[in-house]
Design a protein that fits this description.
Elements lengths: L7 H13 L27 H23 L12 H4 L4 H4 L19 H13 L5 H7 L4 H12 L16 H13 L10 H4 L18 H13 L9 H6 L4 H12 L27
Length: 286
């Protein structure tokens, strides 16, 4: 039997063939004994069948490994170039199709006014609003591309998840929050939220967002950024003007009350304000 060096499978097949033919397993050029004859290894006949089966099994494994190594890698699947595919990264935080998730810092995108979404994307890109992940994703995108993204999410009409209607905030805190949202605070020149965001608080086209259906953590954090000056909008920046007048207690009260409000029967933003806004606001000119 010759020992072939091509691959393990061929070697095992050669070994199995030698056993099948009742050959002796020997190697040419092997060490010679003192008599000058080649050293031989005789295999008893009763071991032929077990050894043959083992050799064939090893040969099959060896040939399979060689075949797998030689096989070409499968071609990657075709990825369609659609807006749905291009915004797929958004769902990791904002939920599937932007319908929101249980993560408190990530708001719903689906159904928000297109102008509002566009303004926020521009603000992340241009540094008026800061989030490291958002800034990284939109840093090199054009206005046209941002408008396309905003349009996609604005046109999604998806059901809202159920809202928890209980809160760990005190009754006094919730009452204070409701008063600020519905009536404002005239003594401190703070307008009511409903004057800009609509009577049902579902937002107003083209650029004022809904305030319901949002987690308390998100609401309080965003109101806080207006207070601290970490968030800006294009001039006239109406929310910055309001934010400067809010206290920490105001923010907690407003966020606590808004977070437990049920979604109205019609959750869509109003087509236009029903009365003049109390402040000039760039949100209405996206």
């Amino acid at each position: 039997m010759r020992l072939l060096r091509s691959n393990p499978g061929t070697l095992m097949l050669s070994f199995a063939s030698a056993i099948e033919n009742n050959d002796d397993v020997a190697t040419r050029g092997a060490p010679r004994c003192r008599s000058g004859r080649t050293t031989r290894m005789n295999i008893p006949r009763f071991l032929h069948q077990p050894l043959r089966r083992t050799a064939l099994l090893l040969a099959a494994c060896g040939l399979s490994a060689v075949a797998q190594a030689a096989a070409p890698s499968p071609a990657p699947g075709h990825v369609p170039d659609t807006i749905e595919q291009r915004v797929a990264a958004c769902i990791a935080c904002h939920g599937r199709e932007g319908a929101s998730s249980d993560q408190g810092f990530f708001p719903r995108l689906a159904g928000k006014p297109e102008g509002y979404l566009f303004n926020q994307l521009r603000s992340f890109r241009d540094g008026r609003r800061f989030n490291a992940d958002m800034a990284h994703m939109v840093r090199h995108l054009s206005d046209d591309y941002l408008r396309e993204i905003a349009h996609y999410f604005a046109t999604l009409d998806l059901p809202y998840p159920a809202v928890a209607t209980t809160s760990d905030a005190s009754a006094d805190t919730l009452a204070r929050g409701k008063a600020l949202v519905m009536h404002g605070d005239a003594a401190r020149d703070i307008p009511a939220c409903v004057q800009c965001h609509g009577e049902a608080l579902t937002g107003v086209q083209p650029g004022i967002p809904s305030l319901v259906g949002l987690p308390r953590l998100y609401l309080s954090s965003q109101l806080g950024t207006w207070v601290t000056g970490e968030r800006h909008a294009l001039a006239p920046d109406c929310m910055a003007e309001v934010g400067r007048k809010l206290t920490t207690a105001d923010i907690n009260a407003v966020a606590s009350w808004l977070a437990v409000q049920p979604m109205p029967a019609d959750p869509h933003p109003l087509a236009a304000p029903r009365a003049p806004l109390p402040l000039r606001c760039s949100a209405m000119n996206p």
